[in-house]
Amino acid sequence: MSKLDSLNSWHSDWTSTKAVVFGLGVSGFSVADTLVELGAQVIVIADKADDDLVKVLDVLEVKSFIGKSFSENLALMEEFEPDVIITSPGIRPNNELLLAATARNIPLWTDIDLAWQVRDKFGKPAEWICITGTNGKTTVTQLVEGMLLSAGVKASACGNIGIPILDAIRHPAEFEALVVELSSFQLHYIQHIEPLVSAVLNIADDHLDWHGSFDAYSSDKGKVYNNTKVCCVYNALDSKTSELLAKAHGTENAQAVGFTVMTPTPNEVGWVEDILVDRAFVDRADVADEIATISDLVNIPVISPHLLANVAAASAIARGAGVQPEEIRSALQVFKLDAHRIELVLDKAGIRWIDDSKATNPHAADAALASFDSVVWVVGGLLKGVDISNLVQKHATKLKAALVIGLDREPVLKALKEYAPNCLVTEIVAEPTEVMAKAIGIAKGIATEGDVVLLAPAAASMDQFVDYADRGNSFAQAVLEENK
Fold first, then answer.
1. CB 226 within 8 A of CB 263
2. Are strands 343-348 and 399-404 parallel, antiparallel or unpaired?
3. I want to staple 331 with a disulfide (CB 3.0 to 4.6 A). Which of 22, 150, 248, 315 is the partner?
4. Which domains, ranges and CATH numbers included, belong to the chain?
């Protein structure tokens, strides 16, 4: 029996437990802080770290080792003899130190695993509602949080967004429900959780460089369904999600509910024209309950098919958690999308300038491109091993022009040449501080009334920008400057 088997509560005796925290970002720090509070013995190993976090660790009397070589880190680990390594989820599984730990049969956790073990700090643990997918998971997580709050449930969005999940566990508000957004990285390492409701929103190529293959990526995503207690939500228009559900274990007592932008069949939530309809949580198969209408989305200027899918998904998840239709409608009436998600920056002279910088992969960019008819497209960045050809081919007829930015320009230029020969293509070569201004200046000379200038890069941003928010802010600043 492993020592970890007995550590299934906040109130277990953690004092003799030795843990290496690997990585010192926001989640890594929350892990170290929590372990100190539990009384465990902790050291932190990281390639890099914010100086302020290191200073706080010093105050907590936690030893940190930053920027050491693999051999130095391995020696530290072997000398410390940890019972568990709690890794930041972004660290790849082929990392030398993690491989060495696995070879020595040292268990690997993330903050999600620790949070599950200690979720009972204040007595009755909060229920977990777990959401993943290639795209839309942040929007859906925020929608579900709003719907639960509308129903009077003390809820918090956490995990891959919002506050770190361990901070939510330790929060004196004593949350009744945690709406946990889970990335494929977190799910790769995850050991055992039991969600009240779980959902896979969609599956498409993403992070293939990290996972190694599409099958490995999707398999990790599907782990969210395991051990779900009440309701498993899948995408009725994405057969991969229902296939993942079929492979899940421990879901025998959970209702399977689909969501769709089409007319729902029994056991689905979907749209009948502009009415959101529930055919899953009703008494009879021939009955449908109205939940809301498109007119309830009063704070969202661009109603895209992807948004309607997210609303249907969130409503299915919330209904699975016991939220009533009128409470869902109230939440939708006050909901606003995050910045950089199909955000209207400017509507001038019949030209709309749209920031969808959060479209960091082709699947997300597909949702944005599907929303418009004539597009001047700002595209490119770090492709993360994903082929963009299918996206270009699908939307070739609506691409008036493409302005190709980013490090991985060649695959994008090749796809545009092959599949969108009538699209005016400009390669943007500039310093990172100038790239967006140059792109927007060219777009201004191309776009005419009825066009949309769309930043939907289909790629990550860290080659030329700090993150997708920085990229979106640069786009918006250049648009406003160019259109003075």
1. no
2. unpaired
3. 150
4. 3-109 (3.40.50.720), 115-334 (3.40.1190.10), 343-482 (3.90.190.20)
